[in-house]
Amino acid sequence: MRWGLIPSWVKDPRKFALLINARAETVREKPAFKNAIRRRRCLIPADGYYEWQASGQRKRPYFIHRRDGSPVGLAGVAESWVGPNGEEMDTVAIVTAPASADLAVLHHRVPVAIREGDFDRWLDCSTEDTDSVMSLMRGPDEGEFVWHEISTRVNQATNDDAQLILPITAEQRDAERPIAMKKPVLRKTAAASDDGQGSLF
Q1: Which domain holds residue 6?
Q2: Domains in the chain: how many in total?
Q3: I need a labelling partner for 99 at 20 to 30 A (CA). Which of 17, 112, 134, 145 fits?
């Protein structure tokens, strides 16, 4: 699947701002997500996720993961878009929630991580009932996740190796050039005012 949900009712995906996140607080009401949360919930397996923290005019990357090192099942919602000529595209967005006090030092929102014992409950869309999964759509408990600083090499898509999740040493950090912060550029599209759900979290 492609990250960045495209609702089935979109006529031209090229003119639609991709929705990479769905807020847990509004996912049942937003037109883009309300069908997917009832019928197409999914899990995105991961070792963890990245977040950037601003420091003055610079920012540094961090790898965030479970304290016990176990894999994470990120809550997702999916859609299949079918074009006028029969072309199909499967897309997905990650559900996010407010961060706990510890994770909030990095960002005020976090991906929803479904606990292993709740996988079946989250994935069961047979009744289209969302009341049973609302309590699952929350951020990790305080202390459940930990993080460490990593190399800014993660900022380049061509870099794809195990080094990208390892802690960076003080010497490596000093040798790297920090990434300068840039002001976000907002595109004026129908989804640009969708409560910030096109932002990372």
Answers
A1: 2-180
A2: 1
A3: 17
| Chain centroid, CA 23 distance in Å | 10
Q: 165: domain CATH number?
A: 3.90.1680.10
13 inside domain: yes
* Measured distance CA(77)–CA(22) in Å, rounded: 8
- Give tens-digit pLDDT for 149-183: 999 999 999 999 999 999 998 888 888 876 665 65
Tokens of 76: 């997702």
Whether residue 168 is contained in a domain is answered as: yes
What are 65's two structure tokens? 């993961």
Q: Is 61 helix (H, G, I), strand (E, B) or coil?
A: strand
pLDDT for 189 equals 44
> How long a stretch of residues is the chain?
201
Q: What H or E segment, with its residue span, contains residue 190?
A: none
- Is residue 47 within 8 A of residue 64, CB to CB? The reply is no
CA–CA gap between residue 34 and residue 23 (Å, rounded): 11
